[in-house]
């Protein structure tokens, strides 16, 4: 053997593994893949649901601001109608404090709401997201 020939040795030395051992390991990668795939899919689903919850939370705060603004300008019935319109097909619960008869120009009105998220809707688990906004009541135009 000349200097340009390289001998390959198995790590750990010794003779190559018997034929039966190689035959038994043939599907091990497929089994490992089958075990990892459900965990990866579950992780992806949870990340998507977290994104939906975050999006709905931002929407809930926007709806609360819209309801508070409508209450400050037009009154309670307009605020509730505005919140329901902004929520679209989702369920929303709105409460305003103080009620329209108890507030005057310059007072603060707070809209507190709960918006039902689209997250986990397919599983039948309702997720309600809270939001609150406060606005100053405006004087009616002269």
Characterization of this structure:
With 142 residues, the chain is of the alpha+beta class. The chain has a single domain (32-136), classed as Pantoate--beta-alanine Ligase, Chain: A,domain 2 (2-Layer Sandwich), CATH 3.30.1300. It is 45% helix and 17% strand. The chain has three helices and three strands, in the order αααβββ. α2 packs antiparallel against α3. It starts with 18 loop residues before the first helix and ends in a 6-residue tail after the last strand. The model has no long low-confidence stretch (mean pLDDT 84).
Q: Quick gist of this model?
A:
45% of the residues lie in helices and 17% in strands. It contains three helices and three strands. A three-stranded antiparallel β-sheet has the order 1-2-3, covered by helices on one side.
List keywords for this structure.
142 residues; alpha+beta; Pantoate--beta-alanine Ligase, Chain: A,domain 2; three-stranded antiparallel beta sheet; 3 helices; 45% helix; 17% strand
Multimer state: single chain
- Tell me the overall shape: rod-shaped
Beta-strand segment tally: 3
Share in helix: 40-55%
Q: Hey, roughly how much beta strand do the residues contain?
A: 15-25%
Q: Indicate the radius of gyration in whole angstroms.
A: 32 Å
Q: Mean pLDDT, nearest integer?
A: 84
CATH class: Alpha Beta
String of helices and strands: HHHEEE
**Side-by-side strand order of the widest sheet:** 1-2-3
Main sheet specs = 3 strands, antiparallel
Q: How far apart are the first and last residues' alpha carbons, in Å?
A: 108 Å
């Amino acid at each position: 053997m000349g200097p340009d020939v390289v001998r390959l040795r198995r790590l750990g030395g010794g003779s190559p593994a018997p034929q039966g051992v190689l035959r038994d390991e043939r599907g091990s990668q497929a089994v490992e893949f089958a075990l990892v795939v459900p965990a990866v899919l579950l992780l992806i689903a949870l990340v998507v649901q977290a994104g939906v919850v975050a999006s709905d939370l931002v929407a809930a705060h926007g709806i609360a601001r819209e309801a508070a603004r409508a209450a400050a300008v037009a009154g309670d019935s307009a605020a509730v109608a505005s919140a329901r319109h902004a929520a679209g097909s989702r369920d929303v619960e709105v409460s305003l404090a103080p009620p329209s008869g108890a507030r005057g120009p310059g007072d603060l009105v707070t809209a507190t709401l709960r918006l039902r998220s689209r997250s986990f809707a397919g599983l039948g688990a309702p997720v309600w997201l809270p939001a609150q906004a406060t606005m100053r009541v405006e004087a009616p135009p002269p």
